[in-house]
Amino acid sequence: MRENTRLSVAHLVRDPVLLFLVILVFTGLFLFILLPLYKIFSYSITTNEGKLSFQAAWDILRSRTYLQPLKNSMLLGLTTGILATIIGYVFAYALTRVDMPLKGFFKTIATIPIISPPFILSLSMIFLFGRNGLITNKLLGMEDSNVYGMHSLVVVQTISFFPIAYLTLTGTLAKLNPAVEDAALNLGASRGRIFRTVTLPLSVPGILSSFLLVFIQSMEDFSNPAVISGNFSTLAVEAYRTITGMYDMRGGSLMALMLLAPTLIAYVLQKYWLSGKSFVTVTGKPTTSRRQSRDPKLMWPLFAFCMLVSLTIILFYGTVLVGAFVKIWGINFSFTWAHFKYVMTLGWTPLRNSVVLALASTPIAGLLGMIIAFLVVRKEFPGKRAMEFISMLTFAVPGTVVGIGYILAFNGKPFMWTGSAFLLIMAFTFRNMPVGIESGTSTLIQIDRSIEEASTILGATGAVTFRRISLPMLKQAFFSGLVYSFVRAMTAVSAVIFLISPRWNLATISIFSLFESSKYSDAAAYIVVMIVIIIVVIGGLNLLVGRLGNSGTVSSGGSGERA
Amino acid sequence: MSERDFSARSSNVSLLHLTKRFRSLDGSGEVTAVNDINLEIRAGELVTILGPSGCGKTTTLRMIAGFEYPTSGSIFIGGRDVAMIPPNKRGLSMVFQSYALFPHLTIYENVAYGLRVQKLPAAEIKERTQRALELMQLTSMAKRFPSQVSGGQQQRIALARAIVIEPSVLLFDEPLSNLDAKLREYMRDELRKLQKRLGITSLYVTHDQSEAMAISDRVVIMKDGWIQQVGTPREIYAFPQSKFVADFMGKANFIKVQVLGIEGEAARIEIEGMRFTVPRAGKAAPRAGSALLVVRPEALRLLPLSSAQGSAALKGRIDRFTYFGNIARYEVSTENAPLLIETYNPEASFVFEEGAEVGIIIDFESARLLPAEEQEQIS
């Protein structure tokens, strides 16, 4: 043990670039992940005079005003988690196991909610079911429909987060060895029986995993409950209101801690407990392609279900698109460019800020993600496991917690960074790295390590090998890291709402204020413009990453024939 | 074409008390992968490390390459101790089991890579890359990517990429194991010819004994981190110094005998009450008492029991008979030990059926003696 540590330290000293990178990454992780968390924690249990005291914490934990949001958030997380997982499972099952038309269409539709700006579904909800709602008022003639509350929130969050469940479960279902199901069929089991006795039990880890991931997303969601929850208070929003409305920093940070605990537990369960329980069978042998059911009694109900979900999504997005072009929703449906004119004039600066800051953080987050993936998979150094854990931690830390932690950590000496572009960029960078790290890690594990060793022994330094060999092979993972970082930075609300300043206001926050003043059509136009920008930038990134390294197939490991 | 240029830097390699310990997988203790190895590889020589998986051969190779750092001991390349020098500063190159070609670079760029890393002048890079491509008959496919050529061609690219930088030592990590049998034999001969022509000091790791025989100047047999025996292929096969080596390099029968006495190289022995002389008993032969007679399957001959009286050392019964055409293989049970017997050109003599009672004649010229008890660790 000691010898191995000594050797890996010796290794570090011998490779100055590696040493530098390890120190750089750890400094970043400490400063922008651990320090803010520590600050929230220490701030919550000290008095204004700086003495250690659990009194405030105790008072708060006993009071209803604080416990109710916790209960609400948990209830919301559970409900959304279950609903989104069910829809995601049906979607995933239909798309992997059943031969049905329009599969490409369903797959595309299911990814839309992942890359769309915040507020959009809540806005549709208001347009469709609000007091002047198209359905409630115009179609059903209701005068006093109340769109605000938990019911709307569940609908909106389920649509927002079922794609996460769908993607997770597709992975699980696609990787289950078809031979296992074939064996059951061969033994005489019916399709229904196979599903109950083989497929479903084998996908239980995937189901739990997707439930926990949706639960985390639902708990930390700020934008939807902020505009549509009405009197149904959730922790993320209540923490924000406590700090900005009542100037109660300590109460806010305690709520942040209450929010952090369940998400962190869910994350650790998902990552460390469930990952060891996966039934996914990886044999390395070519698996026969899966036979897909053509049974119409199975196909048509599933098709109808997928179509219903897809049409709902189209309806919600279409509503916002239309809403951006009408004068006053529900009252005057005549066409106008006025809302876009508003976005291009008064709304222009926040929009530009959002694009500039997102573009600034994207390459940093993308590159840092690849570097961390590379270090964790390929290098030996002390603290490697800690680096992996901390860097992925941001996935589980709600944006609200990050925002409050950043205020506490960077609002005084020695780091006076609040309100600066720098801090916003760092917030984006460290929050948006995990997807890059994850896709980088899984790509690197598949790439034969000796390809890098070949570069090394031919005389290349670690840095040259990374730039000329590893990075080009990581192109696909790098790209998805970049896209994700950019989209997340453009659409971030919960963390940045604490960090913006008059100089650096952001588009999402402007949309939020438009909601506060009920200027829904302006908000709709804003959202449409953001969608256009996101699509354009993703296209641009695609071109740019295509230029990186030469062409040629990257997937093959270099060894064509195997005996 | 001046092939001699490629060999200019060939150096000798010496390993001194080289040891590598790893933490065991459960973290409780340590596993010694390589145990106090001493080995001298002369400049221009091709030495093969042969052994079963887990014997430490790959770890040894990777320590010389610099991918693992030794726990103790030294590695000298051309007189310089490189044990703690990073792999990219050692001036070696390596051909990997998976070839490890850069999938995103053309074949030309794969070969040129090592030269580009050295930042050589463009003209020199071009000249040397083209020379290496020509040498390996790859010129026509220089613009393709590795995934677009065959396994044998990928192998040649890996070799071209390794020799173009004129390494002081060339390392091979089971480079032929991904090829099918026929191509493997062809590439093996090509590789040996090239190595001899260029005179590059080479260390080759494999678990395939016929590959080791065919390619090597000398063979090192390893087991459990220890070197068992070092010698030319002929020395290893004809004079194995332990039961393990005899068994691992080719097939061997072990007949229990009593040694009556040694005179020079010869030994007088007794098998089942009959006395024989082993003219060249080998260095490991015990002076007296119980011993094992090592006999290769091709050094045993079968006779019908009726005509064998008096000349046969052992009597037995044929349990299993396999006919390969060029060879007939018999598994024979005797009172002494089960025997494997191979008869070449079987149609030229009598072919025995399963169940036949036979007499067995031993060719003592090629037989050797080993101690009866396992005494494996011979350095």
CATH superfamily of the largest domain in chain B: P-loop containing nucleotide triphosphate hydrolases
Specify the helix fraction band of chain A. over 70%
Q: In the CATH hierarchy, what is the class of the largest domain in chain B?
A: Alpha Beta
Overall geometric form of chain B: elongated
Strand order of the largest sheet of chain A: 1-2
What general form of chain A does the structure show?
globular
Could you give the distance between the termini of chain A?
38 Å
Biggest interface, chains and residues, is:
A-B, 41 and 52 residues
Q: Approximately how much helix is present in the residues of chain B?
A: 10-25%
| CATH superfamily (homologous) name of the domain at 1-33 and 332-551 in chain A | MetI-like
CATH architecture level-2 label of the largest domain in chain B: 3-Layer(aba) Sandwich
Let me know the largest β-sheet of chain B: 6 strands, mixed
Class by SSE composition of chain B: alpha+beta
The whole-number mean of residue pLDDT values of chain B reads 89
- One letter per element, helices H and strands E, the order of chain B comes to EEEHEEEHHHEHEHEEHHEEEEEHEEEEE
Low-pLDDT segments, ≥5 res of chain A: 280-287, 549-563
State the name of the first-level CATH class of the domain at 1-33 and 332-551 in chain A.
Mainly Alpha
Would you give the CATH topology of the domain at 1-33 and 332-551 in chain A?
Answer: MetI-like fold
Multimeric status of the protein: heterodimer
